[in-house]
Amino acid sequence: MRRNEARRSVLVAARLALAACLAVTSACTPDGGRRDESAEVPSYAKPPSRFADVLSQSGDRAIKADRHSLALSARSTSARVTDDLGQGAVLRDGNVKVTAHSGGPGSGRTAAKGVVVFRDAAAGTDVAQQVVAPEAVRIFYVAKGPGAPTSFDTTVTGATVSAAHGGVVLKAGGRTVGAIPPPWAYDATGRLVPARYEVHGSTVRLVVEHRGAGITYPVVADPLLTVGPGGRLIGAQLLGGVFEYAAVAAITWGVVKFDANGCLTLSTFLSCALHPLEHDWGNPALPKAPQVDAKMPGLVGVRLPDARQKLNTLGLRNIKLVDDTGQGRTVLEPKNWVVAAQSPAEGTTVHANTELTLRVRKPSDGAGTSGTVPGVVCMNLQEAQDKLRAAGYRTGSRDHTGKHRRQLVDRNWLVVRQEPAAGTTAPPGTQVVMEVVKYGEPTGASGCGS
Fold first, then answer.
1. Which UniProt keywords apply (predicted)?
2. Same-domain check for residues 250 and 277
3. Domain range spanning residue 328?
4. Which of 1, 64, 104, 180 is the most buried (most CB within 10 A)?
5. pLDDT per residue over 89-105, tens digit each?
6. Residue 299 near residue 293, CB atoms below 8 Å
7. Taking a C-beta distance cutoff of 8 angstroms, is the pair 166, 194 a contact?
8. Residues contacting 187, CB < 8 A, separation 6+
9. Is the pTM of this model over 0.70?
C-alpha cells in the first residue's frame, strides 16, 4: 500500500513539474532534453504587455507566407492566420480543425513575421492575430480609448468550449483537444487590467474592465488558443482539481520568477534559493544593492579601471560597457580602454540599480570626439530615447502636427522624423530632436506604419 502511495506521489510531482516547465518555456521535454523547434510547445505563463513586444517576439520565427496568409506547421499540427478577418485563425491537430473568428469581414496588413493587424476592427479597437507556434495562435484586442467596448467575442468552430478555472477547454469527439489559458490584459504603462472569460454557447467572451480610474491607453488583451500536446496539457490543468491547479500556478510563478532574474543556472540557483533575502529581485541574480543615491561623476577621458573605481566607491555597480567605435569589441583588459562618453550625464542623480552606460575606446582609436547618430524613425518614443541615450546623445521631442501636445506617455507616440538624421556624424552630448505623432495618426512621408 505504501509503495503504491509513494508511486502516485512521484507521478503527481513529475506531472506538476512537467506542467510548470511547459508553461514557462517551449524548450522542455519530459526527459529534460531539448525539443526539435518544429515541435515547439507555446509559452503561456505571461504574454507581452505591449504591442511592440508582440512584433519583436514574432520577428525571429520562420513563417511560411504567401500573399494572403501566414502559417507554421509541424508533424501533426499547424496554425494559420490570413489578411481576411472573416476567415478567422485556424488551428489543426491531426483530423481536428479549430477555427476562431474574432470579427469580420475586414482586411488586415502584416505588421511583422507572423502578425496581421486589422485596424479599427471594432469601435476604437484594433485586432491583431499572431502565429505563435505550429499549435498556437494569439488574438490580441487593442482598446485604444475608453470608447472601446469592454467585451470582445471569439466564436470557435470545430470544437466545443467550456469554462474551467479561469480558462477555456476545447473538446472534440468527447476528448480534450486544446485550451485557452486564463486571459491577461495590460495598459500602456504595463499595469494589469482585470480580465475574465464568459462562455456563451460556441462564443468565448473576453471581458476587459479597462474603463477604471488610472488606465492609460492603449490596453492590450491577449487570448491564446493552443492545440496539440501543449493544448491538451493546459486543458488537463484547467480541468484538474483546485489543489492541482493552485500547485501548478505556484510552480509556474516560481520558475518564471527565477528565470526572469537569472537564477536558473548552476552557478546562481542555490544562492538564489537558499538566500532569497540577499538578492535584489529587480536586478537579475545580483546581490542586493544598498539603497543609495549618488551624483554621477564625470568620467569622460578617464581610464576604465579608474572610472569603475569611482563608481564602485559611490555604491554604483550596474555598469554596461559599449564599444564607442561601433565594432562591438569585448573589453578584455580594462586598463587598455578609456571612457569616451557616459550615460547618465555628469551630475545626474542615480540610484544603486541604475544602469550606467560607459562608451569606451582604446587610445589607438583616437579621441572619439564624434559618433554616428542612430536611426530611430518608426520607433516608439520611449525606445527611441533609450537607444539615443545609450549612444551618448541627449534627446528632445515635439508634436509633428504642430499642435504642441505634450508627450506624457512616451510609448503612445511614434517617431516620424529626427534631427540630426540617422547616420549623421555628431559628437556625444548632441541633442537629437524627434518629431512624433500618436499611434493611429497619419505619419506623413516617413512611411511608418501607425
1. Signal
2. yes
3. 293-365
4. 180
5. 999 998 889 999 887 77
6. no
7. no
8. 193, 210, 215, 216, 217, 218, 219
9. no
